Amino acid sequence: MRLPDDTEYVPDDAPLSYWLWNGVWWLHHPAVGTGCLAKHAVVVHDDGTITASPSIKIWGWRGMVHGYLERGCWRDV
Q1: Hey, how many other C-beta atoms are within 10 angstroms of the C-beta on 12?
Q2: Are strands 41-44 and 33-36 parallel, antiparallel or unpaired?
Q3: pLDDT computed for residue 28 by the predictor
């Protein structure tokens, strides 16, 4: 969902999701929130899923997650 200032809004309880915005990939993890994948190599697969490397760490107000995003599926380290 877009807010009036054209920023992306993702509710805290949204499922794992990712999107491309202004040339940068973003990832929302339901356990901690949203993080930027600007420092990651992202491969877009023919089915529309993505793989990001290296591993991803996202810190949020509920803690931190560390894992891999492979073909759109999250795998904890």
Answers
A1: 13
A2: unpaired
A3: 93
Quote the CA–CA distance of 58 and 56 in Å, as a whole number. 7
pLDDT band of residue 62 (cuts 50, 70, 90) is: confident
Task: Give Cβ neighbours of residue 17 (< 8 Å, ≥ 6 apart).
Answer: 10, 27, 28
**Cα(23)–Cα(76) distance, rounded to whole angstroms?**
26
